[in-house]
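Quarterly update, task 2.4: uracil-bound model.
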Amino acid sequence: MEQFRRRCRAFFDTLWPAEEKTLVFGEGKTDHPPIMLIGEAPGEQETLQGRPFVGKAGKNLDGFLQVVGLNREDIYISNVVKVRPTKVSPKGSVSNRPPNQEELALFTPYLYEEIMLVQPGMIVTLGNVALKALLGKDAVIGAYHGRVTETTVQGQGFRVFPLYHPASIIYNRSLTEVYQQDLERLKTVI
Ligand code: URA
């Protein structure tokens, strides 16, 4: 895993030499965890702390762990894109934006390598970005959430359980119940 991170860092250092882009790598159980959780990209807090799913996203994660009955250190937590995608408003304030096609194309091969290293029992994707990275660009979360599906990474089959992104639930209250039901179902299949 250390070697993987060094290679990844070296690649992005040569790509964006002038920019200070903090890479936020995965953390947790790196050796056959029951779940590898894959989010979209780090946000501000993740970049400041150098860890995925902390701050507000970390609170959502705690709810997830409580329902499935696991501790943070029992699973592996990562993101498709390892840098924070940002945009700057005309007034100069910096905020998050979804990863663009270039970022996705650059980071997805590293995500596949990471999955091969970690060898999770189940991949849990959060939201459309992680889902599409694994199942292809035509996959949509509405059609896949809450059930086990299969994908192939570098020739190896993996079980995937897609969930809505917890952040999308904050903006769409009707999804809260669906998300909770999906979590209960996840608990029965891990
Ligand atoms: N924090 C992360 O690390 N990933 C997300 O997808 C959202 C918040």
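Highlight for this quarter: The first strand starts at residue 27 and ends at 28.
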